[in-house]
Design brief:
Length: 453
């Protein structure tokens, strides 16, 4: 073999090795794709969350965005601005040097309840804020978004360590307001005799009726309750602790419109023996005869949905009912509502899957069938019989962000599981929602439980 031949052989061998190495590297990258730097991940997540809020409002007219249909319901424009104020107040004003608010008065208009962050406009008067306009509100969002993304892009690891927890809280805060936006729009549209349509697609009426409820038994056990780990959770989900849960059984599905109609036809709204005292007083004062958004037309029950006014589908889960109605129904049925600890124990091994806002159905869906636990996540928030109270060892964090949950731990009931207006990646097993027992404007529903002797 000549010297030239030997040199060619060595060159070919090196090329082959290089090619094999490159192929191995490419295969490894397919199996384990490179993880984007933390700053890029946070910026991407920021855009995703903010863009979804904008998308929820894309079919609204300016007139839709300024209506306040009751004191509990802030106008859509206010939600667009408040979520922006959150990032401006707790991110930009803290960590962006030389940041100056373009309109300092927005801090007064769009603060919600953070007393430590300054004074605020009255909640029941938010519908009177004609300025800024909707267009100016979107400009405010764009301006703050540009500054937040610029801050993230320029931040070193030490600064990201400080910013990241508040950013993630801001993402989750905005997702809460996305859910509020959906239910706000529904309440606003329901006041209009024209019954505007939010989304044109109409859910197909169910071709099947869910079978009888099947009650899944659970033995008595001492179980861990609350969040554990380093991923995000709200402070009210901890500290993690152990709780004794007595033997119980839980319905495999949610109560349907058809089943709730049976309660109504049995004069459930006129029989005080099923109702808590305050619930009976409230039902009489408010003249409740059916769930919110229901109306009887020519002898048939119809309900207003975000896809328009349509006949009540008896297979769908009943929704827009208060805790008082849920409790009365359970008493009439000879059952009860679950405690939040029973609910968490039953759902502990289930995947967080269901009818969330990501599907853009914007309405509860019928149960798929079967005797296994289903609809534990999504569709409707499930009222529990647990009062919203702190877990053992809970302490409110100092400062304005410490006002997020703790100060509301009075006169409210816990709901679990999320709804058709909740984002899938916002939900956790340990998530504790809470509302006063008379409220009906959220997607709230019923799952029955029973004691096991």
């Amino acid at each position: 073999m000549t010297r030239w031949s030997r040199r060619q052989k060595k060159t070919s061998s090196r090329k082959a090795k290089t090619l094999i190495s490159a192929l191995r590297t490419a295969a490894a990258e397919q199996q384990h794709p490179a993880v984007a730097p933390r700053g890029e991940q946070l910026a991407r997540r920021y855009r995703q969350v903010r863009d979804f809020t904008t998308r929820l409002c894309q079919n609204l007219q300016p007139e839709d965005c300024v209506v306040q249909s009751m004191p509990d319901v802030s106008p859509a424009k206010w939600h667009l601005a408040h979520t922006t104020w959150f990032f401006e107040t707790f991110i930009l004003k803290v960590w962006m040097q030389r940041y100056r608010a373009e309109v300092p008065q927005y801090a007064f208009l769009f603060n919600s309840y953070y007393n430590a962050a300054g004074d605020m406009h009255r909640r029941d008067l938010r519908g009177l804020i004609s300025r800024p306009t909707v267009q100016e509100t979107y400009r405010y969002r764009t301006s703050v978004d540009e500054c937040v993304l610029q801050l993230i892009a320029s931040a070193n690891d030490a600064l990201l360590d400080e910013i990241e927890p508040v950013l993630i809280l801001g993402f989750n805060h905005e997702q809460q307001h996305q859910e509020l936006l959906v239910t706000v729009i529904k309440h606003v549209f329901a006041q209009n005799p024209l019954f505007p349509i939010f989304v044109p697609a109409v859910p197909t009426p169910s071709q099947h009726r869910p079978g009888a409820q099947h009650f899944v038994p659970f033995d008595e056990a001492t179980v861990p309750i609350g969040h554990e780990g380093h991923d995000f959770s709200y402070d009210n989900e901890g500290p993690r602790h152990r709780a004794l849960v007595h033997a119980f059984s839980l319905s495999n599905r949610l109560v349907t419109n058809g089943e709730y109609l049976a309660f109504m036809e049995a004069n459930g709204y006129t029989r005080p023996e099923f109702w808590l005292s305050l619930g009976w007083t409230t039902a009489c004062e408010q003249q409740w005869q059916a769930p919110l958004y229901w109306e009887k037309r020519d002898g048939e029950w119809w309900n207003f949905t975000l896809t328009g006014f349509r006949r009540v589908d008896e297979a769908e889960p009943v929704t827009h009912i208060s805790y008082f109605e849920a409790d009365a129904y359970a008493n009439w049925d000879g059952a009860r509502l679950a405690t939040e600890f029973e609910w968490e124990r039953a759902a502990a091994d289930l995947a967080i899957e269901g009818n969330f806002v990501d599907r853009e159905r914007f309405h509860p869906a019928p149960a798929p069938g079967g005797e296994q636990l289903q609809q534990m996540f999504g569709d409707v928030w499930e009222w529990t019989r647990s009062a919203y109270l702190p877990y053992p060892g809970y302490r409110v964090a100092p400062g304005a962000l410490g006002e997020y949950n703790g100060k509301f731990m009075c006169n409210q009931m816990v709901l679990r599981g999320g709804s058709c207006a909740t984002s899938r990646d916002h939900m956790r097993l340990t998530y504790r929602n809470f509302f006063p027992p008379e409220k009906r404007w959220q997607f709230t529903g019923i799952r029955l439980a029973r004691d096991l002797s």
